[in-house]
Amino acid sequence: MIYFAKWKVVAILLVCGVGLLFAAPNLLDRQTAQSLPSWIPNQQISLGLDLRGGAHMLLEVGIDEAVAERLEAVAGGVRVALRKERIVYTGLANRGDHVAVTIRDPDTLERARELIRDVDRDTAVEILDDGRVEVRFRDEARTAYASSVVDQALEIVRRRIDEMGTREPTIQRQGAERILIQVPGLDDPKRLEDILGKTAKMTFHLVDVKTDPVQALSGRVPPGSMVLPSADEIDPSTGQPRTYVIKKKIELSGENLIDAQQTFDSRTNMPVVSFRFDGIGGRKFARITTENAGRPFAIVLDKKIISAPRINEPILGGSGIITGGFTVREANDLALLLRAGALPAPLTILEQRTVGPGLGADSVAAGKLASGVGLVAVIVFMGLAYGRFGLMADAALLFNIILIAAALSALQATLTLPGIAGIVLTIGMAVDANVLIFERIREESRLGRTPIAAIDSGYSRALSTIIDANVTTLIAAVLLFSFGSGPVRGFAVTLAIGIVTSMFTAIMVTRLMVVTWLRRVRPQTLPI
Known about the structure:
By secondary structure, the chain is α+β, with helices and mostly antiparallel strands. The protein is built from 15 helices and 19 strands.
């Protein structure tokens, strides 16, 4: 146990040197650290919401609305299928949780059932006594669809927040229909609320130029058309948002968008949003603009018309711009939403709170004080209890703290207040292995063994006990991380990292210092 191969010495020194390199940026302010050359480690420890301040939000995904929207598609499919087979029906409507339709001819009921079942295989078709047919999602299909909607919403939320340029957000599913969001360091929570509150479902429709919007508002909307308000245009005669009558048919969907960026109109120098379609969308866009030159073309976002430009000529490049009197920030946010994609269901904010940086600064200060007091107490105790050997253990303890900071910086694991508690606990636990080894060396010395034999026996016989104790603690940390959430996970991460680094410093770093001293001094007795 007292022999060290040269490669082991090099490996230990290399690990300690790399640890110093990765931990050093934490001594600089964030701006200075980010300005370091890219080939030098410049990542700092990521502080959690409770330490850095920021926004906390709990969202609920509107599963019922998503199901109702899918049933609307089912209703459309039923209409097409029955008309194609010339089956007479009445009362086709989406009731929110099911689609209802009445088949006039009882002899066509079974054929209608087969057609309706083929529209969506996830539905169950029930025929009532009066010839009415009800279409509902099967329970297992609805559960699976709800889960996929939440997963899709989670991914869209993640994209939108990442596009904002925020650092280290926590975005995770909570329960069956909820999403938890924590964004440390966010200084504008209202912007986060605005961006997440929009479904961002963009569609393109032709404007119904034959129908007067005033007449449409009085209830005379022709079949196949609908009335929608403008997002920013005001009707001077009423002082209300201007309304448009547009065709219900979606000519082109935002699903075909592959890019959207804020830019400036070359003619007016006003902020606009440029967009670009994929190959399929580009071909559709070219066909629509070719066939409808001279007609207004409405761009609808979340059931509001953000722009209704006139198609002056065919647009064959698969790209265009959206104008609407935007500010630069509004254009940037709209482009962000379009790039991230539309939410599959609306989000409702159940809980929202903002943590001020002052509270986080107090927590950091308290954590530093606790860590400092604990570190000094351990250093003093080890020095008094074990003399020179205790000072070696103290040096290894300092390297242990450096390695913890380096690991947290390299992994970009978020440090929370419970995580600081884990570091403080690690400071106390880090010398446990040294205490076991030093006490064993004392016993061997009292039995009359030579210094070399006592040290060799102390390290050999204490090793199994050290491994057992640390492995059991590591198992507990892994279980805390697996089954816990939020603060519990933060504690588990720092505890697990501390266990690994303390094993390395206690068994390898301290032993290297002891063996180096032993070979140079060759003492007759051990000062322990």
